[in-house]
Every structure is written in structure tokens, then in C-alpha cells.
Amino acid sequence: MTHNPPGQRRRRAAPTSRSFWRFVAILAGLSLAAWAGRQFYERFGSRARPVPSRAVVEDEQTAFAGYAGSASCRECHKEAYDLWAKSNHGLAERPVNLDRDRMSFHPTRAFRHASQSTEVRLRVGRCEVVTLGFASNRAPYQVDRVIGNDPLQQFLVAIPGGRWQTLEASWDPRKQEWFNVYGEEDRFPGEWGHWTGRGMNWNSMCAFCHNTRLRKNYDEATDTYHTRMVEMRVGCEACHGPLKAHVQWRRSFPDVKLPDPTVTKLTRDQYFDACGACHARRIEVTGDFRPADSFFDHYQLVTVNETDTYYPDGQVRDENYEFAAFLGSRMHAAGVRCMDCHQPHSARTLLPGNELCMRCHNGANTTYTNSPLINPVAHSFHKPDSTGNLCTTCHMPITPYMQRHPRHDHGFTIPDPLLSKQSGIPNACNRCHQDKDTDWAVAFCDQWYGKKMDRPSRARAQIIAAARNGDDSPRDRLVEMLQGREFPYWKGVATRMLERWIAEPRVAAAVTQQTRHTNALVRTAAARALELLLAAGPTDARAALESLLSDPVRSVRVAAAWSLRASVDLESLAGTELRQMIEVSADQPGGQLQKGVLALARQNLPGALTHFQKAADWDPGSAPVRHELAVVLSMMGRYPQALEQLQQACRIEPNSAEYRFKLALAWNEVGSLNQTVAALEETVRIDPRHGRAWYNLGLARNTQGHTDEALEALSRAEAMDPRNPRVPYARATILVRLGRVDEARAATQRALAVQGDYAEAQALLQTLGR
């Protein structure tokens, strides 16, 4: 089940996109997102932590040598072993076993999904799935491995090149029936997300989190894999780390009661990081996480951002697993960790229903001093035996992924129907009471909780929702979030949300200050946001980024190196780590896109073209890849080909204003004015707030001789982008030719009010007279 990048196969019941880019939402091929939590200040905040001398990843033989295998644990830890062996971890991946799997494949069955049909059968002792495959025809494929256990099982097919592909056809052991993980969405060979594509490749997308200490071992030159793992399944050492020395010591000294000197017990936070290695939507930095390692030294975490990956209040939307939502919660900030609620070996909850929550919220708990006393019936206003009286119903709502996997949101958010009414954020009230409208839920919340509903988490969600809608009003409040007492997770979110205003001195100063924050997530977010200031030349932002190249946390160093990719020394520590990170994902279109962007930044146009073209071949349905390919083709003077790529991007994402705007520029490059105007008009239809499109539309209409329409477009541009002096200056030049001197003078003065040293405007004003 995919984790790097995640989201493609564990989908909600009605998935809407076939391309990897819908879920990763990368900018220039790299998404270095942010995460946080107060408890991490000391762990990741100390700037005195020594920086490793080289970015070294152990060779496979050395890495694997310290493991003993889960079977060696049973003789001393039978109770824990038996709990684990029957768990979803113990059964995360295994070979097909006819004694266990016969009922899934016999008798022969067929089921329909969208326009296709799939058949499962047993043939001469082989389990087969007959489905649409590599040659775009229905064919039988032998399955040899099973991944997952409960509530669904998926099956692997071996193909040449060391590849294993994960079938869409999946088995529901509870209902004893077959289904398609994409539901009624049709996917076809050639698409990234079809089971034959790279989006369903086990080596890259599933293997790490279903096995113990795995190395993908991708060879880019031959496009093949030599994947190896210590143990097939999530074994004991996947969480405890290599234990061969411990096993040998215990066998050598069976009667010694003293602690084993070869074992260093992991802290609660180290175990938490080990959980996050798989239970997070994240991007690989090293491809080789080990228990006791820092999460941030191996991953970039996807958090709330400007896409619809999460809802603005932090609730999960796309497949985000549990980790990031929990990091943004008050529970995490209070010190709660996974094993406070989950049995570590079975992974099940320690107590049923509200009993689990009431261990802390009973008024007598002394471990977590911030846990308020709660009477579930009085608090929920629901009957004791009702679903609405369960803490989890309201604060951990369920979203089904992969059609059959109901998963609790671990953000512990507060149901707020007002946010549903304002921004479409779901609330637990209407999730249950689907026959009632949002106003009904708002009325009851106001009646029951009154002013308690007007809490900081509501204000924060409103700020983020407004920023995602393109409003300017949240800018100052986002800056205040950076300067206030907000959790670091949300400071990281606010830092990235401020990128749109990064050129403004106050915003730039606030974001630059975050490079000195004690939390690695916030520093990572600042490193990405400051990239947009580098074009201005030497600035405080560049100096701050350069200081982060020696940050104690690897993900921060990599983020800074990416932002400085045009100039960073690729043989330095951070440069080497950046190259290693990109190589980890070189088997995916995202990795090739990153390689292309890096080559482009280093003025290697042929290299960039090669990588972008490979990414497009691997994911034909990716609009961002088409865009980057168009950019490099345009830089090489191949304008018709660039135009073709942008036309494809617009076909893939017809509602993207930005791609339509770039298409307009491409039409202009080939000299087609009418097509340029048409594309610009479509851009502002899709996004009426697109200031650059209005500006260019004004210029284009003026060239056509449509001066009134040109002035109207420029006025709209000025309203959308009042800080751009070129807009009123352009309007002034048209007004001069129309003989409307007073209006021209006023427009010129406005341009100079925005930028006092604007030479062209100064010259025009002088000719007009002050």
C-alpha cells in the first residue's frame, strides 16, 4: 500500500484523478512540506547538534547484517510475538498460500467495475486474475504475493526487470468478495495509476512499508529493480531496529538478569517517528529509515497547504494516513503518542469505545495535565448508547479509502458546522445526520456550546480557507500566526501559505525569521518559501538559506539546497544529500521532473529536456510535466512543440487558469494574436482574479486596436495587482494616444506611487507636465 508518493491507491470511494500529480501537488517536482509539535523543540531544535561529515547511506550487506528475524524473538517474547503474528503488521506481506487463499480464488468468479470486468480463478494450483493488462487486452496473470490483511488484501504480479505490480482487483475478507480499489473509475494501460503503471509498482510504492529494512535498488540505466529486504512483512525489527547482537547475547547469557548492554531502548518519540515512517504521507529523502532515526532526517512530510490534500482545519481529505493530522493536534502537543492508545504488538486500541478516552479525561489524570474533565453524555448531548455519544464519532470521523478501508482522522478536530457553511469543510454532525442541512447543525452547536465554538482553531481554519481562495485579507493574520503561540505544525503551514506575498518586506522578514525557529518543520517551510526571493539578487533571504545548508536536520539542508539549486555546490554535504534524494525517486516521473528542474537551473537544457520527456512518457496524464517540458522547449526556441505541450496540459486540466495563461504566452510566441487573446479570455473566465492575465489581455487587445476593451482589462489587472507599476503605466500610454491627458497623468502618477524610480513613468510624466 503506497506511501512514496502516497494517495494513488488508497482512495476515497469516488476518486477523481488518474495522475500522481493530483495527490503529490509538487511545485517544480519537489514538495518539501512542513510538520511540527511542541514536544519536538528539544529533539530537533538544538543548533548544537553535530552535523554528519558526509551524506552516507550504509551498503546493503552492512545494513542487513545486524538483523536476526522475527522468529528469533519468539523464544523469549512469546506473548508479544503471538499478538504480532496475527496482526496486520505480521501479515503485511506474504507469499500466496493455497491453504489460506484458496477460498479467494475458488470457485471462479467475475465482477464488473465501470466499463471493465475481471475474473479470478484457480488453475493447476496457480491463483490467477484475468484482467486488462500490459497489451491492452484481457489476459490471465499469476499472483504470487499478498499485501495487506484486514480489511482488504491486494495481490502482486511479477514482471521482467525485477518489478512487482499491484493489481486493482482486491479481496475483502470480511464480506468474502472481490472489488476494484478504484471503484467505478476506469483506468487503462498507459496511465500512471493503472495497475500496469508506475503508480502501482510495488518496488517503489508499497514495498518499504510492508516489509522490514528494504532497499529498492533501482538501476536507472536499465530501468530495472534488484529489491531486497531483511524480512518479508513488518517484523519485530521494523520497529525495534536490528537485534542480532541482542539475540546472540541473550543466548550466550540466558540466566543473566541484568539488562542487555547491546540494546538501547527507544524513547517514546523515537517509536513515534518509527510509526510515522509508514503512517504518513511523505516524500523520501534517503530511502533508508531505521528505528531510532529522526523522521526529519529521512522524510519530507505533506501537510495542510494550498491544495485540497487536507481541509483547511487539518482534517484529512486525500489519503494522508494518520501522522501529519496528529502532529497538528492538541493531543500531540500535550504529549500523547501512539502507544498511549494502541497496543504496540497487535496495534489495536487498548480499551473499547469511550473507555480509552476517559483514561485521561476523567479529572484524575496526572500524566497529561491539559486533559480536561469530560462527561461524554453532557458533552455530546447524545444518549449514552448512541453513536453520537462516542468521542471518536465527533473528534475522529471516518473516511473510507480504497473502497473498503474506513480510517479514523487523527487530527482530533472539533466539529464546526459554521466552517462547513463558509468553506465546505465537513463536520461530524452532518456526516451522521445526512438528512439535515448545515444550518440545522449550526443552530444546535450554537444552542449547546455558544461562545465556546468561537475558538482559535476556527479562526485558524478561516484564515487558511481564505488564503486558499486567493483572498489578500489573510496575509496579516498569517504573519501573526508566525509571531504568536501557534503550534509549530501550523506555523509551518502559515509559512508556506505566505509565499504569495513573499515579495512584501514585512512578509519576507517574518518568513526569514522562521529560518531560526527551533522546529525543523518550520525551518523547512521557510527554506522553500524564500526561494521566490532569490531572483532579486543578494538579500537577507539568500544569506538565511545559505546558513540552512549546514542545519543539523537533513530535510532542512535538502530544502535549502533545492531552493539554492542554481548555485549550490553539488559536492557539498547539502548538495550531495539533494542529489541522493532525487536519485531515490528516479524511478518515478516525480524524480525525473526533479532531475529536469535541477538541470534547467544549472543551464543544462539538453539534460532538462531528456528528464522532462522521460517523465512525460512515464505519466502521459500529468499536466505539470507537460508544462515543464513546454518551458524548456520554449527556451530552446522550439516554440511549436512548446505550444503542443501546453495544449496537452490544458486538455488534461481544462480548469487550470495558469496553464491556460501559459498557453496564451505560447500562442504569442508563434505570432498568433487572435489565439493569444482567446486563451487570455479563457484564463480570466476560469480565474477572474488572475492579474497577469488581465494585464496581458489589455496589451493584446490594444494591439488589436480595441482600446476600450484594453483599458477595461488593464483596470481589472490593476485591481487584482495594485503593487505592479507596469499596469497603470500601460494604461497611461494608451490614454495618451487617445488624447485623454489628465487621465494619463493620473495613471502615470499612480505607477510612480508604487515605484518611485520607474524610469519610463518618470519620462512620460515629464512629457505630460506635472
Give the secondary structure arrangement, pairings included.
Blueprint: H1 21-24, H2 41-45, H3 60-64, H4 78-85, E1 93-95, H5 98-105, E2 109-113, E3 116-123, E4 126-132, E5 138-142, E6 145-147, E7 154-159, E8 163-166, E9 169-172, E10 177-180, H6 202-205, H7 207-210, E11 212-215, E12 218-219, E13 224-225, E14 228-231, H8 236-240, H9 244-252, H10 268-276, E15 282-284, E16 299-301, H11 323-327, H12 330-333, H13 353-358, H14 376-380, H15 391-395, E17 398-401, E18 405-408, H16 417-423, H17 428-432, H18 438-449, H19 456-468, H20 475-483, H21 488-497, H22 505-513, H23 520-529, H24 540-548, H25 554-563, H26 573-584, H27 589-601, H28 605-618, H29 623-635, H30 639-652, H31 657-669, H32 673-686, H33 691-704, H34 707-720, H35 726-737, H36 741-754, H37 759-768
Antiparallel strand pairs: 1-6, 2-3, 3-4, 4-5, 6-7, 7-8, 9-10, 11-14, 12-13, 15-16, 17-18
Tally of individual helices: 37
Question: Strand share of the residues?
Answer: 5-15%
Spans of at least 5 consecutive residues with low confidence: 1-50
What's the rounded overall pLDDT mean?
91
How many beta-strand elements? 18
How would you characterize the largest beta sheet? 4 strands, antiparallel
How do the strands line up in the largest sheet? 1-6-7-8
Radius of gyration: 28 Å
Shape: globular
User: Helicity level, as a percent range?
Assistant: 40-55%
Structural class: alpha+beta
